[in-house]
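Researcher: Good morning. I'm working through a list of sequences from a screen, and I'd like to move beyond sequence-only analysis. For each chain I'm collecting a predicted structure so we can compare shapes side by side. This is the next one on the list. No need for commentary yet; just the structure.
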Amino acid sequence: MRTPDLRETLRLTVADLLKDEARGLCLSLLSAGVALDREINNYRIQKHGLIFAGFEQFFEPERMQLMGVTEVAYFETLDSERRLEVVDQLCALQPICIIATRACEPPVELLNRCKECRIPLLQSTLSVSAFFDAVNRYFEDFINPETTIHGVLLDIHSTGVLLVGKSGVGKSEVALDLLQRGHRLIADDVVVMRFRPPATVIGEANAILKFNMEIRGLGIINIEDIFGVTAVRESQRLDLVIELIAWDEYDDSKRLNLDQENFPILGINIPKATIPVSPGRNLVTIVEVAAHTFRLRKQGRRSDSSLLEDLSRRLNTDSD
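Model: Good morning. Structure tokens for this chain:
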């Protein structure tokens, strides 16, 4: 379950749209001296050209309002009195901001009224469709948090498995054996985790380390070069976390794993299994079985529950 208020400490304002992080929007400010600290809470854009014709229904001022060549051309057909009426009607609704796309020069009446009402009037060199694409990508990056985790992310029969543990415990070596058995690598060492609504975590490689793996004694190897393109993939949904720990650190009281462990990432509780490591133990097969067990549990099939139910049934029968 997702932790509530995951990003409540973050705020997106109109001023943020003008910063370097949003340069892909190609925005500039036309109405200087206005309130740029207006907070953007609705991440959808509206192009409601009918507002220029006096039709206010379905106008949503909390959304950024786009205007393009069509709206500007229509506005120019109006007489001066009607222009002022339209501009007053629009600004009275106090939109969060107005953006003129395709470097359109907005009407002078609108520019002056926006300054008076302290409404941000922006201009983008992008076309309407290009701006929609760019701003949607920007919003997606903002509302979907990310973090990095030290580990190895693998695709094991379409199950995203993240191997974690102390440095030197053997994560990369286990991953290498799994790759030889036909599974796929997403990331080694630095795994970038991104949240995707409503409750999914997607993992991918760091751009610099992509498809590279460090093996002690060999150094850095490129998995795509050695095993081919079928041994790697760009990203994978995270389904299961497996922690590898030294044998003497394992809590033997949890050996039956009756209570599901979780590994919280970005507010999502990911199922977790803890596997002790010892010389001669076939960790590759154990990790594969863990992935299979995860899929069975998603289908509602749990061997431990079935065993306990059978034991309870036998005990009740004997007591009768």
